[in-house]
Amino acid sequence: MTSYSITGRVVRTIDLAPLANISVRFISQAGYLSNVANRSLLPAGQVDWTRSLTGFSGTRWECWEQQINGKVAIAWGDFRDGALIYNPHLSDDGRVFHSDKTYLMPEVSPAQEVSWTRQITGFAGSRWDCWVQYIDKRVPITWELFRDNALIHNPQLAADGRLFQTAKTYLIPDVAPVARAACEVKTDAQGNYRFDNIGAGAVGLLEVNVAGYTPVRVPVIVNNTINQPINVRGGGSGVRSAHPSYNALHPKVRAIIDQALFMLGDEKTVYDALPTNLQQMCYGSQFASNPNHQYYKDIVCADLVSICLAAAGFNVNWNSGANPHMAQHYAPGPATLQEISDANDWQPGDVLVFGNNGAARAGHVTLYVGPFQGTDRSGTNYALSANFDVIEASMNFDLANGQRWGLGNIATTRQQCLQGKRGYQWVKRVRLKEVAALI
Question: InterPro entries in the record, alphabetically (predicted)?
């Protein structure tokens, strides 16, 4: 069988930094991966997003009704959300399928039927050597069955002292070619990966699924040696944007979203994941040498907003009579900010400012980023159906004993912010004029 290679480089979208020592998998039918040393079979009956769909148009519900319901054991809610994860271009098209585009659908891995149909030539050694090189962990058959049946399917072995000869051809077991299999490699220090000996005509998926990053699956057809770069969104958090126009937004606006989602979870874990320049923007950086201090690695509400804007390349050091650690820094007034009163005009990067009547300063801020979903650093899952679209950090205390019980960096919704005002008496919304100019 003619074979080819797949090569490429995995980088982080937000800064194009290479991702080293991470796993890249290629998933295809087992027959195309017969000569790949690290092939592993996907369990029969496993639901996986590996089926290609072209020529369909309609909503996710219509796709569910026509293509999935009663055919694949997956719940509607899992399909609804998974369709956006494995088909990012759906969000760009208003979450509607187009007949001229190709999409990934869930399917059930077929049975791993074993048959003695694979021919090998050029191998020399014992049955055990053959088992180790071709069979173990690659074909669902025991050593004992292989040992005995190798003699039945290859009677010439007995005449040759039960030793394989390089000049002869033998039959060895393999799974049915339609069974699903995967091969896996690690990226090097520069983020490069390489697969060799992929059978010509293989149709499959390149997969990168790293904790803290948005899962990526790239469909490929191997009719030649190909180079496929892979860009991974995220950078520590397993939460991804579901904004319907994410890819059309200005890169600096996307960077605000990405940084905000990066920061969801326990604040100390988030602090440790930040680069030094952004750590220094946290209120708790001045106490980072004292783990017993109540503000150790603390990230206050305004810190989160300031870090997200600064990470995207915006200046947050304007003169407002406050500083970027303080909610008042984002109160309407500075020439760099404009208040937004149009209830229909919401843009990622908008800052919600909360305060009390008669108070000299604002007391809290949150950051609107648009819809998102996924699991954050602390294991909290944000379902798309919950409509989370606002990120906030909090400073909270147990007034009974003076100990912090901070919520960390969490998600909420704009409806909750507007209706409950996060416990304050008023809420206003402001937009950095630099951000407004990019919309």
Answer: Papain-like_cys_pep_sf
Dmax over CA atoms of the chain, in Å, equals 99
Provide the whole-model pTM.
0.51
Cα 80–81–86 angle (5° rounding)?
105
Q: Specify the DSSP element, H or E, that contains 417.
A: helix 414-420
| CA distances for 415 relative to 10, 301, 343, 362, 389, angstroms | 38, 19, 11, 20, 9
Strands (E), 60-150: 96-97, 102-108, 114-121, 125-126
Closest CA to 204 of 3, 19, 8, 6: 6
Residue 84's SS3 state is helix
Let me know the angle formed at the C-alpha of 377 by 404 and 206, rounded to the nearest 5 degrees: 175
The radius of gyration computed from the CA coordinates of the chain, to the nearest angstrom, equals 27
Q: Tens digit of pLDDT for each residue in 278-325?
A: 999 999 999 988 888 878 888 999 999 999 999 999 999 888 778 889
Tokens of 283: 């209120």
Residues 328-333: contacts with CB under 8 Å, at least 24 apart: 328/361, 328/362, 329/302, 330/302, 330/305, 330/362, 330/365, 330/430, 331/355, 331/361, 331/362, 331/428, 331/430, 332/428, 332/430
Q: Residues 321-352: pLDDT tens digits?
A: 788 899 999 987 777 999 999 999 999 999 99
Decide: 43 and 225 in contact? Cβ < 8 Å: no
